[in-house]
């Protein structure tokens, strides 16, 4: 019987081990000077999924070839000027780090910069060797790329399109559980509502993970662009459902509101929602060919009829009840949109606003520019250590300083990256050295050791994602130790040079991080939250005061995830009382911004602003003036003014039924206005 590993991680680890060994053996066959580059390339581009490997391998080979060409050209320009050499080194790194963060092809820019360094570093080692390295380094890396790409399809392939089905099924399971908890909460008020927030965050994380794989989906055979676009729209719609749910979580329903909802018989509504979620789950496929039958629309229509019949028993000021009804309406619209994605002609989505993406913001982001400058200075300092000490491994030091600068944007991250890099180096190098001490190390023993330990380190890397960098570095150290020119190792220079280089790189990077624009984790977290506040203030003004066809809103998902990630990481650390209080204050501010963001989304999707202003005029309520005051208070972070505004909004809601216009105004218009005023009140309370 043919052996087929059951887990995705095990298949990927076996594939990586086989590909790394094949790449090294090919390099041995052609007597390449540094065959470990071929094996290193395989483990560096390794991934769980075929499309991700092809995507990364393509960028690696293109970046390497371009970097080799530019490196040789630059070497000719700077060969007679040490100052020009340093300036070029700085500019190459600064520009590559900028595009690494800015461009979706950032990995190619990074590899291009590394290859430029490898070539021009020969000016300090052996100037006559620059041309040789510019030709043969891409060849060695190209062998690794080619072998990795072929093996991705031929040896235990894990296709993203297959995994997407599993991920989407899992997401729908989470949605089913979330709506079950909501149903229980509406029936039994004693149910803990915090579970809803935890489940919704979990759903968002899973959707985000699926979205991150979409780019690599294009690289897989048999997947057309229309399938990718359809899946992206599918995930965006699921994310919209989760994001709109956030506002419902924020509201705290009163016991009287819950009793009123129970009298409206909400059970059929949740049964229909469950049916439709199961329908989407069981019939999901990238090609979406099966017919989907929905029940929510009809059940919602019956529910609204019951609401209309009993509206005299429902307070028009019941914020939670009508927010719940509005959410179910939006949920139904999203269900219809998802269903349309399975039809030959999906419903065209007309965006209500222009999106200012992360890339657009980064074009002139001062923090990114500072980060690029610091990365360049770290490399120059590593170069300085190398030149002054003449310590072997200078080139590895440059690479280490660059990698640590990119992966660690603050001292907290740098510490973890450095520790993981050291641990991986000692683990892989230690295995290699012990193997050399125990075995004679002929070719057959080399093959067995490489196969087993590359598989083991790769499995650890794929399975323990939190510590995956340790597994990667262990693989690299092992391959450098064992895969040397001509066959099994005859010296220890490569692994010792790598260890020395890591020490140089870590030292240089941490010195620069502490001296130039010191970037401790608390400063970075506060900076992220301050940015969120500014961008949310901009979004708030756009939604409230700018015409619908002229709105431009910042996409803040990535910044929210970065901030949440830092808060979670710090929460797992042993902190002093002072730092615990600081973390608590920053977390509270972050959660306030989450509430504001959810409220803005609620206004954007649910509220008819034009109708709200028209209704406000009937009650002689100067809504526009209060909107402007809210924007001004939010921009100035004037919490006192925010509290005063919240009192004004609260008084209006409390006394609206005493106004003469209340009896003649349309109920739907009043609910729309009250929903808007309550949303503004909620925002005003979050100003800090």
TrEMBL record:
Main location: membrane
UniProt keyword annotations, A-Z: Cell membrane, Membrane, Transmembrane, Transmembrane helix, Transport
Location relative to the cell: Cell membrane
N-terminal signal peptide: none
Gene Ontology MF terms: transmembrane transporter activity
A cellular-component GO term for this protein: plasma membrane
Database matches in InterPro entries: PHBA_efflux_AaeB/fusaric-R
Membrane-protein topology: Multi-pass membrane protein
Taxonomy, superkingdom: Bacteria
Sequence intervals crossing the membrane: 12-30, 36-54, 61-77, 83-100, 107-125, 131-156, 419-437, 443-462, 469-487, 499-517
Pfam families reported in the protein's UniProt record: FUSC
Name recorded for this polypeptide: p-hydroxybenzoic acid efflux pump subunit AaeB
Gene name, Swiss-Prot/TrEMBL: aaeB
